[in-house]
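Supplementary notes for students who missed Thursday's class. We covered one full example, reproduced here. Read the sequence, then the structure, then the short commentary at the end.
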Amino acid sequence: MGSFRGVVFVDTLQDAANREEELMEFFDFTNLPFEVMPANLNHFKSLIVKAKESVED
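Structure (token representation):
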């Protein structure tokens, strides 16, 4: 699969533990190590707001 070294699963729903089987299937398909990173959507919202403000300036 190209030159990828790994995958970061950004868990915005905070339910990675309930998706373990799907994550393992993805790992089996890609043969890449993965890391689960808990996150909320506020981070992404702030990035969008910041980008919007920079366009308006």
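Commentary. Strands lie at 7-11, 34-38. Residues 7-56 form one domain. If anything here is unclear, bring it to office hours.
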